[in-house]
Design goal:
Blueprint: H1 3-15, H2 23-32, H3 34-52, H4 54-59, H5 69-93, E1 105-108, E2 115-119, E3 123-127, E4 132-136, E5 142-146, E6 148-153, E7 161-165, E8 168-172, E9 176-182, E10 185-192, E11 194-198, E12 206-209, E13 212-217, E14 222-227, E15 240-247, H6 248-259, E16 262-265, E17 273-279, H7 286-294, E18 296-301, E19 304-309
Parallel strand pairs: 5-7, 16-19
Antiparallel strand pairs: 1-4, 2-3, 3-6, 4-5, 6-9, 7-8, 8-11, 9-10, 10-13, 11-12, 13-14, 15-17, 18-19
Length: about 325
């Protein structure tokens, strides 16, 4: 990998951590070449590596600690920069090292920012803001998801990726798809290939193919199919939230993740359906926009928001 490409990936990594990131340009750059995706994933691993070895870096300069804060700080920065440059050199010299197998590993995306991960076996995961996964297995073939994520999985008929999402399990051997979850509700949208969804208490799985979207909710679970344009699958990576006849109980938490707030919905309006497209921007206006469009009450309480029928702002009524 050439150094110029690594520098581009570093700039985009920094840009995606800011509120004013141009997500459309970032997505165009990311999709322009597989090398771009690899470079961005490698830079993300660099960031993980520096964070992982922070304590070791601190131990590497113990002698400077007794010579004043300013001297110690210079020594620490120097050691961190040296470690960072070594990792950059490793990125340029050879492909990204896989995650170490063994104990389960947990990864989370910060509020207001997504996170890209490259796992063993050619599994690429983009976590939506405020989402998290736990990864198990020698080839990262077992994943537990909390929130929303986009998966780009290299085809491997000898490996079945299993993703636990609440009470559901999604199975895949290689495709591109999105998962959105909230409690017992799940949305599966497939851009390429096919996945299987195992419903609670049922044998076998239901198939979701490219161009399809599956909504699952209720107890017992009820599955509902719809259409999903490939460009709309995981469109939040490009700064758009796209909803097509989806229940408010699933829409609201997803909007909340990108707004950086926790959203609850009065059961009386939870099954109202919503269709629309939001430009995410900095996320601050998303919940209020949803309230205006649907004609419902939006009650803000710090980082929590409650949605209820117009004229009834009391939670739980």
């Amino acid at each position: 990998m050439d150094e110029q490409l690594v520098e581009q990936a570093l700039r985009w990594r920094a840009a995606t951590a800011r509120d004013d990131c141009d997500w459309q340009k970032f997505t165009l750059w990311l999709e322009a070449s597989p090398a771009h995706r690899q470079a961005y994933d490698d830079v993300a691993m660099l960031e993980e590596g520096v964070a992982l070895h922070q304590r070791a870096l601190q131990r590497a300069v113990p002698a400077a600690a007794g010579r004043g804060t300013r001297v110690w700080r210079r020594a620490w920065i120097g050691a961190a920069m040296a470690a960072g440059m070594a990792l950059v050199a490793l990125i340029v010299a050879r492909p990204l090292l896989p995650f170490m197998a063994g104990a389960p590993q947990s990864f989370a995306a910060d509020t207001g920012a997504g996170r890209t991960l490259s796992l063993d076996g050619g599994i690429r995961v983009v976590l939506a803001p405020g989402s998290a996964i736990q990864v198990e297995g020698d080839r990262s073939e077992q994943i537990r998801l909390d929130g929303s994520a986009y998966f780009d999985v290299a085809h491997d008929p000898e490996r079945e990726l299993r993703i636990a999402v609440g009470p559901y399990q999604v199975r895949d051997i290689g495709t591109r798809f999105e998962l959105v979850s909230s409690g017992r509700e799940l949305k599966v949208a497939v851009a390429e290939g096919q996945v299987g969804v195992v419903l609670p208490g049922q044998q076998g799985s239901v198939a979701v193919r490219a161009g399809q979207r599956l909504l699952v909710a209720g107890d017992p679970a009820i599955a509902e199919y719809g259409e999903a344009a490939p460009d709309d699958v995981g469109s939040w990576r490009a700064g758009r939230l796209v909803f097509r006849n989806e229940p408010l109980s699933l829409v609201a938490p997803e909007v909340g993740r990108h707004a950086g707030v926790s959203v609850t919905v009065d059961p009386a309006i939870a099954q109202r359906r919503f269709s629309g497209v939001f430009a995410v921007g900095d996320g601050t206006q998303l919940v209020d926009q949803l309230g205006r469009i649907m004609g419902i009450e939006v009650r803000h309480e710090g980082t929590a928001v409650h949605l209820s029928a117009a004229g009834d702002s009391a939670p739980g009524r």
